[in-house]
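Reviewers of the previous submission asked for a worked example of the structure-prediction workflow described in the proposal, so we include one complete record here. The input consisted solely of the amino acid sequence. No template or homolog information was supplied to the procedure at any stage.
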Amino acid sequence: MAGSVLIALLVIGALLLMFNNLSSYQKVGEQDTREAQVIEFNNQFETYNRKNVRGSDLYSLLNRVVDYNRRQSVAGTGNTDQGQYVAYTNMTIKVNLGDNLKVYTPDDTIRLLNKAKNPIEQSAIKNDFESSISQTVENLEEIYGAESLTKLAAGLSKIFIDFDASNITDKQKEVAKEAFNQASKKVPVTNWKELREGGEIRTDVYTYYEYVQFKRARFDCKKVEYDNKTGRITKLEFEFTGKFE
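From that input alone, the workflow returned the following structure tokens.
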């Protein structure tokens, strides 16, 4: 009888030890999975933790952060948003456009970027920067076409700056007029004086020029913050370098 009890106790002890080991292995496995998920998550944003980041990349990053904040952070409140269950800290992106916004325009007038906050600070589920300029940008693209406007703003805008007919070749004039005639749904520009002295078309190109310049601007990542509990990136800060691509 005593031997049977002893054997039973040994079996029970072995089972308890096995269960404890299994529980420990499970906890280690879960911890490894969580760490792998954190690494995978951070890798999406660590790519921006560097110097010389393009404004166009930051434009995409702002939208990515908005999507994350809505779906997985505590800011998400919709029925299908994971944020109300996983409750991760919402992410913040801060972008300092610089002290002098005039570097984004070909003259001394700011027409587009003054509609947005400087520095840009995004931590919600709506892209505040995009919403502040999108209506103007979309309207211009509807009139001229995005591709044509980009070419006009990035290249032919130089014709407007410190314009002097003696410094512009006949070929450049023809290229400019051709581009405007193809791009604009308004009355085609046939008079070079009209093109040179400005008016609505020139104002539109100057406005869109700021959008193009922001996308061409270069920024350095100055700060990265992580959540103390989850290890996830919660904040990235960028500063304009004063340079354009």
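Residues 53-244 form one domain. We consider this example representative of the routine output the project will generate in years two and three.
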